[in-house]
Amino acid sequence: MSQLETLFAPIKIGSLELKNxxxxxxxxxxxxxxxxxxxxxxxxxxxxxxxxxxxxxxxxMVMEHNSAFGGREPGIYSGAQILGWKxxxxxxxxxxxxxxxxxxxxxxxxxxxxxxxxxxxxxxxIAIKGEILTPKGxxxxxxxxxxxxxxxxxxxxxxxxxxxxxxxxxFDGVEIxxxxxxxxxxxxxxxxNKRTDLYGGSLENRxxxxxxxxxxxxxxxxADKVGVRLSPLNSFNSMSDANPLKLTAYVVSExxxxxxxxxxxxxxxFLGIQKGDVLTQAREAFKGTxxxxxxxxxxxxxxxxxxxxxxxxxxxxxxxxxPNLVEKIKNGVALIEPDQNTYYTNEAKGYTDYPLN
Length: 357
Description:
Blueprint: E1 11-13, E2 16-18, E3 22-24, H1 40-48, E4 54-61, H2 79-94, E5 99-104, E6 121-122, E7 131-134, E8 137-140, E9 145-146, H3 152-168, E10 174-178, H4 183-188, H5 203-206, H6 208-221, E11 226-230, H7 244-257, E12 262-266, H8 278-285, E13 289-293, H9 298-307, E14 312-315, H10 317-321, H11 325-331
Parallel strand pairs: 3-4, 3-14, 4-5, 5-10, 6-9, 10-11, 11-12, 12-13, 13-14
Antiparallel strand pairs: 1-2, 7-8
Helix pairs in contact: 1-2, 3-6, 7-8
């Protein structure tokens, strides 16, 4: 039996029956139109990758005026967006695939130039260091407006409505984006959250919004079709926490109580600044399915699954350039490295034109 054989065995995640343990990680590619509507090109792209056990579709705006990716990431708050996503889910299902939608709010990572001059919101008025690409070129991030306590229920309601819309669009489930320095992650980590009310200070308070959102989304889908993505170590978007291991242990144990279908765990830091074994911490606290992500080779992923550290693996950049990744791994075919210059353009080149065999 091949060392990699475990990757190709079926798995049940929550109530989802998957044909293998290879997951396509959410990859924001900026191929929606100017109104954040999914396009026919997106339907083709995702259908090409339907041999994955599960596709996690890209970060998708739950509320308008929260663009952080050049104004061309998709949304799920309008009727036109629901119809656009319906084309995507139908294309994937016709190829025998399963697809869930990642529900996302950019928080302070957004910019007025992308959002009709709306100032971004965040737990606290602390700006991301560095610059963001906008139609007016690269500009510094702006200082966000701290959400008023009475506004926070509208955020929860925004995620809940988006979850309903994802059902209408034909998805098989949803993933809540609690990672990478976006709004829910901003609340959880103490570098971005200096609040002194119910949503700041203690771990319980800082994790409150993520857990409220998760409960609201569970009300729509049921816990067995809801996943959560976390990145306690990732310093992307100027993020850090004084005690990422303690944060991991707390929030994961709370998600375990909610019996979410899976935990999508980013195990390291994009920038290599913060280090720690958050995956072992998560495994101790979470009894359900853990999808491991960041830097896995197929061999390491198979070994980690055999040891029980993770249950499935999510590949990101390899899915950009290898739409038939499952078949390539199974047959030992060399993998193509993606052209990073085409990651965030609005064209088919570098998106739907990678070879399918």
